[in-house]
Amino acid sequence: MPTRFRISRSTVAPLRAGHPWVYRDGLVNAPVGEVVELTGDDGSVIAWGLGDEGPIAVRILGRGAAPKQALGAVVGDRIRAADAVRQRLIPAGTDCYRAVAASGDGLPGLIVDRYGDLAIVRIYSAAWLSWLDDIVAAVKGLGWVSTIYRRFGVKRVDGREGGEPLFGDTPPDSMVVSECGMKMLVRPLVGQKTGLFLDQREHRDLVRRWGAGRMVANLFAYTGGFSVAAALGGAARAVTVDIAAQAVEDARENFRLNGLDPDDHAFEVADAFEWKPRGHIDLLIVDPPALTRSRKSDGAARSAYRKLHRRLGPFVSRSGLLATSSCSARLSLDGWQQAIREGLSPTGDWSWHWCSSEPPDHPTSLAHREGHYLKFAVLRRR
């Protein structure tokens, strides 16, 4: 029978609503990786989950009492169900996506990404370390998996860079995957996130649809996904800007992989915060890294977004488009939009044309507001 812990009264309502975390101040310490049940003052079981370390004391796996089914079986069922949903949601011509999205799939702290026949696992909670064999058993049973690789880089959990193979051989240094028919070079051992920014897939498709005939600039471009999408959509010219020389070289290769001549476009190794265009820009794409990771720096993040848009706004031609994004989970949608409004207001008249967030393979639990992180908008300079 799972160990039971009584939680604070203030924690009861969020748990009953389905929140996937219990913070350390909500109950006594629970053993890391052990199944526990949480009770209210009257002794009734409100939720169950895994004990964790750090500021989150328990990762919630369900409301009510823990099931009689072994946890390994529960994990397997949820992993298979998550991937099965992706088969119906992911666009044709796509073999890279998030197969398991933590709390959005009932497995808070666990991420599994697909790149062709490679599954990359990232563990954001020490609670899952004791159950790694069950995770691997479930993932390798998915129909597309031939290799499973774990990426490190979560300080509280593994405290190191690199990774390790969990099933099959170590992945190659680079591989090519397909996103909506667009070929993308991936470096699964060292690339950002787990190799690609998978969460921008639908937004790259928007740029592909709206890029026809436009002069495009893509800032903070990484390996140029937005640039390639715009070029495939018929952009007159795409300028790819990133501070990392290797990322820019990979962007050139992505053009070649898609039958596009890199010499018809431009590539610059430069700091996007200081970049200036050499001509007019009809579509400017701005996708900076997270500018805040703590509540204490929210004000600084809003100021950075405000200054960035005030500087870049005049670069967009009249009737041109600005596609802008933020992956800062700590910065609210309202705070981000306010920073954009304040930044662009002195540069002319603008209209919001699109605003969206995470794609279908990055679900968030209904009660987990903190799970929403991605913000994307398209504005027109009138």
Please give a quick description of this structure.
The protein has 382 residues and is α/β, with parallel strands linked by helices.
SSE topology sketch:
Layout: E1 3-6, H1 9-17, E2 21-23, E3 35-39, E4 45-51, E5 56-63, H2 71-89, E6 96-101, E7 110-115, E8 118-123, H3 132-140, E9 147-151, E10 163-167, E11 175-179, E12 182-186, H4 201-210, E13 215-219, H5 225-232, E14 237-242, H6 245-257, E15 266-269, E16 281-286, H7 298-312, E17 316-326, H8 333-344, E18 350-356, E19 375-381
Parallel strand pairs: 1-3, 8-9, 13-14, 13-16, 14-15, 16-17
Antiparallel strand pairs: 2-5, 3-4, 4-5, 6-7, 7-8, 9-10, 11-12, 17-19, 18-19
Helix pairs in contact: 2-3, 4-5, 7-8
Helix-strand makeup class: alpha/beta
**What's the CATH class of the largest domain, please?**
Alpha Beta
**Whole-Å distance between the termini?**
64 Å
Radius of gyration: 22 Å
The number of distinct helices, counting runs of at least 4 residues, comes to 8
Uncertain segments are none
State which percent range the strand residues make up: 25-35%
Average pLDDT works out at: 94
Report the major sheet: 7 strands, mixed
Structural write-up:
- The chain has 382 residues and is of the alpha/beta class.
- It has 3 domains: 3-63, Roll (Archaeosine Trna-guanine Transglycosylase, Chain: A, domain 4); 71-178, 2-Layer Sandwich (Transcription Regulator spoIIAA); 197-381, Rossmann fold (3-Layer(aba) Sandwich).
- Helices cover 25% and strands 29% of the residues.
- It has helices at 9-17, 71-89, 132-140, 201-210, 225-232, 245-257, 298-312, 333-344; strands spanning 3-6, 21-23, 35-39, 45-51, 56-63, 96-101, 110-115, 118-123, 147-151, 163-167, 175-179, 182-186, 215-219, 237-242, 266-269, 281-286, 316-326, 350-356, 375-381.
- Strands 15-14-13-16-17-19-18 form a 7-stranded mixed β-sheet, with helices on both faces. It has a 5-stranded mixed β-sheet with strand order 1-3-4-5-2. The protein has a 5-stranded mixed β-sheet with strand order 6-7-8-9-10.
- A hairpin with a 4-residue loop joins β4 (45-51) and β5.
- α2 (71-89) packs parallel to α3 and α4 (201-210) runs parallel beside α5.
- The longest helix has 19 residues, at 71-89.
- It starts with a strand and ends with a strand.
